Amino acid sequence: MDKFIQVAEYLDSIEPEIWELSTKIFSHPELGFQEYFAVEILAHFLQEKGFEVEREVAGLKTAFIAKHGSGKTLAFIAEYDAVSEALGHACGHNFIAAASVAAAAALKAANVPIAVIGTPAEESGGGKVIMARAGIFRRFLGCMYLHPSNKTRVGGRTLAAQRLILSFQGREAHATRDPRSGIDALQSLLMVLWQYNAVRRTLPNTFLDNWIITRGGETTTVVPGYAVAEAHFFAEEPGDIEKAATFLGRVAKAVESVTGATGQLEKAEMYPPRITDPRLREAMEKAFERVGIEYAPMPEKEAGFTDVGAVSEQVPVAEGYIRVCDASNHTQTFREAMLAPATREKVLQAAKVLAFAVLELLPPPCSNGA
């Protein structure tokens, strides 16, 4: 039997299982490095399909590898962390995980060697960066996956990104009885942000940042003794992020000397830009065509960011996008779309695209002719 037909029929036959995986992970959102429920049901599904599953890869309790076949194979990436407690799976990682494991199961049923790499903490922890540092992805020929989106296409070069946490420890005091005995941590924090903002215009136009203050005191009757701000820095080149972070650290040190509060700057893993492999891109676009899905041309540059950039520094990578609604991800509207009836068909299509892309990359069958 033609392997494309065999794979498609297999995926159609397990469609209820695919949707159940997606909805179960959606209904049990877990933040980065805490995705125990998601890993358990994904590993159970893969083991039932005959995969060998390796747990706690690269020292991460919620990372895994499931493999069928010997030697180096292509691999699908599974993501499964939620955006936040408030937004849950507003990025559709439940969809990604379900499509990746289903596509792998279909290829195994067709006796095609394949693997799934379970990667935690894409949203902020940089699970793939840690796994890349441990050399995990070098075990494979290349990696692919499909992300739900508001457009259908293969993704181009993304931005570099890094999350930063700036905190100040001061000293609490009563706001009216003895305010001058306090050290205002919030004002120290704001002084840094004012100074930083005054010179950020010297950074390249491609540099972007976004800030929130997550802690600024407990009550208005007490001088704040502790204050925290979090930011994400984005740029076309990691060096521009490093330049901005270095300046921020210098300003924090200067403010310490003025106010007496103690500052601390924590930097999470750097997400390098994702580079798309031309061969994997072509295979994925052919797979879209086989499934009957129209797709837009791959943009040269993307406004998004992802830790799969660390993977693309080591092995060929292609990340596709498949439209599920008009809204952008990381919104409540997108989150709600993850349970929409139309999305059920989309996750099945995504699994077919992934499986077909691998089949496109296989060498043609040997001819019986001389």
What does the model show?
By secondary structure, the chain is α+β, with helices and mostly antiparallel strands. It folds into 2 domains: 3-158 and 273-361, 3-Layer(aba) Sandwich (Aminopeptidase), CATH 3.40.630.10; 160-267, 2-Layer Sandwich (Alpha-Beta Plaits), CATH 3.30.70. 38% of the residues lie in helices and 21% in strands. The chain contains 11 helices and 13 strands. The protein has helices spanning 3-13, 15-26, 36-48, 93-109, 127-133, 185-199, 238-259, 278-291, 309-312, 332-337, 341-361, and strands spanning 52-55, 64-68, 74-79, 114-119, 142-149, 153-154, 160-169, 173-174, 208-215, 222-223, 226-235, 262-267, 317-323. The chain has a 7-stranded mixed beta sheet, with helices on both faces. The chain has a 4-stranded antiparallel beta sheet with strand order 9-11-7-12. Strand 1 and strand 2 (64-68) form a beta hairpin. Helix 1 crosses helix 4, helix 2 (15-26) runs antiparallel to helix 4 and helix 4 packs across helix 11. The two termini are 23 Å apart.
Please outline what is shown here.
By secondary structure, this protein is an alpha+beta fold. The chain has helices at residues 3-13, 15-26, 36-48, 93-109, 127-133, 185-199, 238-259, 278-291, 309-312, 332-337, 341-361, and strands at residues 52-55, 64-68, 74-79, 114-119, 142-149, 153-154, 160-169, 173-174, 208-215, 222-223, 226-235, 262-267, 317-323. Helix 6 crosses helix 7.
CATH superfamily of the largest domain: Zn peptidases
Largest sheet geometry: 7 strands, mixed
Strand order of the largest sheet: 1-2-4-3-5-13-6
Give the number of domains. 2
Order of helices and strands: HHHEEEHEHEEEEHEEEHEHHEHH
